[in-house]
Design goal:
The complex is a heterodimer of chains A (about 100) and B (about 150).
Chain A lengths: L2 E5 L2 H6 L3 E4 L5 H12 L1 H7 E2 L2 E2 L3 E5 L2 E2 L15 E6 L10
Chain B lengths: L2 E5 L6 H12 L5 E8 L10 E8 L3 H13 L4 E9 L2 E2 L4 E9 L2 H18 L2 E7 L3 E3 L14
Parallel strand pairs in B: 1-4
Antiparallel strand pairs in B: 2-6, 3-5, 3-7, 4-6, 7-8
The chains are: A alpha+beta (about 100), B alpha+beta (about 150).
Chain lengths: ~100, ~150
């Protein structure tokens, strides 16, 4: 059991895995810290810039988007599913 | 139920979506608007694009349905369709279709960019651009849409 974490796109490249089960993270903030401790600088660079979550990072908890300013307030429990992916972004200014 | 989907290339097209929308939306509709996202042949920095590769997580369809459902609750909006192609797409080909039927053009024109903004930031679909020189994730392209503060 534990929290099931899935990585997509650049996050998959940074960790080298599709998914991992994590134990002991009571909040999303704690989960990110555990993941950075486990996967190191490559993941940290993809998640954070100057201590803040990067603009392009999207996090789903059980399928629902979590605002990146609500990491500490987002409680987690065994059986939860957390996904990391980059917003689709792209396109030149004003385009798709 | 929202009319949304994630498709492989060739499984969806604007003509068939429009026909379905006209059939389902009924006769109270005074305006139909559409947005088609098309792959450009040049990247933002002028490189020739070979293709874009889109991928999606399982939750993508549910998020598209959530967005369509939210907009369909608005006064003046009758029906919303959001269909995304998730595949390797070459320049000139379509990546996404958004169609909105409503009572008038004001409601429809307002809804289209708002839907696309949410699709770009809230839906677990991402893309990789492959040019003659390099490959980059969508968020690395430099001028992309950033998430609205607090979302």
């Amino acid at each position: 059991m534990g929290i099931h974490v899935r990585f997509f796109a650049n996050f998959r490249e940074a960790t080298g895995v599709d998914s991992v089960d994590v134990r002991g993270a009571a909040t999303l903030d704690q989960l990110l810290k555990q993941l950075v401790a486990k996967y190191g600088k490559a993941l940290e660079r993809n998640l954070f810039e100057e201590g803040k979550v990067r603009d392009f990072v999207s996090i789903l908890v059980n399928g629902r988007g979590v605002p990146t300013d609500r990491l500490a307030a987002t409680k987690l429990q065994d059986g939860d599913s957390v996904s990391f992916f980059p917003i689709i972004s792209g396109g030149c200014a004003g385009g798709r | 139920m929202a009319d949304v989907g994630v498709h492989r290339k060739g499984e969806v097209d604007l003509t068939s979506l429009l026909a379905r929308l006209r059939k389902r939306a009924g006769k109270d509709v005074g305006a139909i608007g559409s947005f088609v996202g098309v792959i450009r042949g040049k990247s933002c920095d002028g490189e020739s694009v070979r293709h874009m590769r889109y991928e999606a997580a399982d939750e993508a369809v549910a998020k598209l349905a959530e967005i369509a459902g939210d907009v369909e609750k608005r006064p003046g909006i009758k029906m919303v369709m959001i269909h995304h192609v998730v595949d390797q797409i070459t320049p000139g080909e379509d990546a996404v279709y958004v169609l909105v039927a409503g009572s008038g053009r004001a409601e429809v024109f307002k809804a289209l960019p708002e839907i696309m903004d949410r699709v770009k930031t809230d839906v677990p679909i991402w893309k990789e651009e492959v040019t003659d020189k390099k490959r980059r994730w969508g968020h690395e392209l430099g001028h992309g849409k950033k998430r609205a503060k607090g979302r």
